[in-house]
Structures are given as C-alpha cells and as structure tokens.
Amino acid sequence: FKTYQRSQPILNIAAFVPLPRWLPRLFRGDTKRSAAKIRRLITALTAERMEAIKAGTAPDDLATKIMTTPDPEDGSTFTTEEMVDQVAIFFLAGHETSASALAWAMYLVATHPDWQDRLAEEAQAIDQCDFAVMGKLRQSRDVFREALRLYPPVPMMVREASCPATFRDRTVARGAQVVISPWHLHRHERLWDNPDGFDPARWHSENGKKCQREAYLPFSAGARVCPGAGFAMVEGPLILSRILRDYRIEVVGEKPPVPVAHLTVRSKDGILLRFVRR
Predict the structure, then answer these.
(1) Which residues make Cβ contacts (< 8 Å) with residue 70, sequence separation at least 6?
(2) 88 by DSSP, 3-state: which?
(3) What tens digit of pLDDT does each residue of 55-90 get?
(4) C-alpha count within 13 angstroms, C-beta hemisphere, residue 156
(5) Three-class DSSP category at 96
(6) Quick one: 2-277 is in which CATH superfamily?
(7) Could you tell me the residue ranges of all domains in the chain?
(8) Tens digits of per-residue pLDDT, 85-140?
C-alpha cells in the first residue's frame, strides 16, 4: 500500500476532465501492480471467508455480517468482486487514515513530554479498556484532535459545486470541481491562534471552539462527511491512551519527520520513535 500511495498523484488531473466512463484511465505501471497485489490479497481473504460462511464456521464479525446481510429490496448479497471493493474502502478509509493520525499523535506527544505525562496519568487512573471510558479521556481526545488539525490524514479533497457560488470574488459555476484543503484551512493564520503550534488546550478557548465549528475538516463535512468520524474519535484517543499508560515514547534521531501528501499524510522517511516500558 505504501508503493500504491507513493505512485498516486494527490490530485488526479484526469478527474477534472469530463471524460466518458467507458474511456480507460492511464496509470503508472507500479500503481497498477500494487493495486493488483492489494486486490489479490483481499480477494483471497474474501473467498476464504465465503467458504467459512458456507461451512458454518465463520466468526460473527463485521465481515460476516456484511457478506450475509441481504439487500432489503431484492434479497441479494455482495458478490466477491463487490466485497473486495468494500474491504478496499475500509482498508484506506478506516485503517490507513487512522494509522496516519495515530503515528503523528505519538510523534507530537514524544516531542511534548508535558502533555505525554498528563495523558499517562489520565490513562493510569482508569482500569477498564472499552468505549465507556471515553468520557474520562478528555485530554487524550484533545491531543488526538490537535494531531488531526496539524496533520489531517486526508490533506486535500475534491468536491463538485451543486449550485453557483462566489468564493472571494471568484465565481464558481454549478458543476465546477473545487479542491478543499484541510491542511491549509487548519493552519490559516487569519483563523487560528498560534496555528502552527501544538496546543491541545485550544479546544477549550473561544477561538478553538469557533474554529472547530467553522474551520476544522479532518473528516470533511456535510453530506459527504466521513461515516467513520465518530468511531475514529473513539478509536484514536483510546489507543493513544492505552499506549501511554504502559509506555513512554521518545523521538529517535535529531531530524524531525517531513510530512508529504500522498493519499494520506505520511512522513517522507518514516517517523522514528522508541517505546520504553514505564
């Protein structure tokens, strides 16, 4: 998937050209090869699960539910090809984005030991590990939210104007393609106090509350908002909290990671961290 990401342009220029759907799109050779490898792996796993469902030995998990729940209108279930598409979307939107956000969050707490200590103390005061504890992980949630602001997993997205609009004296026609950049919006100096600084406490200030409503789009917004946004804001802070409960995270090396925009925001040469058991 790393190969697939790095061979893909962050914005596909061809998507802005209204070409017929039947016309083939051109992709680099390594993009095609890595995509085919990903689909082969998912296809094998899907076929294996289908056999387990037929044999009555499949676990009662999300994959099994998706594959066995019939369409309410015609009673059909997903074909293997359709299931592969579903899993591929989960892989990118549910795994890769969460991994990116968590990696940057761990880097930020490693470079801000005061906040790391606060999160560790908060985590150690809680015995159980389930979604019910989220009300007690306020500082972990603030840190994860700040990581999403500084390093939004999806740095740019394309939307189509559903009606005519005007953006700063520029006319946008209905049907026009608009590039929205959470990365730039989250660091806009006219909107945020200390836009490039790591400040999880900002979410309790008037500026932070206002910007969270009006200038914070890590999951997009409106009709196309990420359907996993709520889950991500539980999963990320909870995992971060559990890690910091048992481990201290330290930065390895002197050079900070350089963020680069692929399908998600990754570090150019990786994020090097050391985990030391507390």
Answers:
(1) 76, 77
(2) helix
(3) 999 999 988 998 999 999 899 988 888 888 888 877
(4) 13
(5) helix
(6) Cytochrome P450 (1.10.630.10)
(7) 2-277
(8) 888 877 777 788 899 999 999 999 999 999 999 999 999 998 877 778 888 999 99
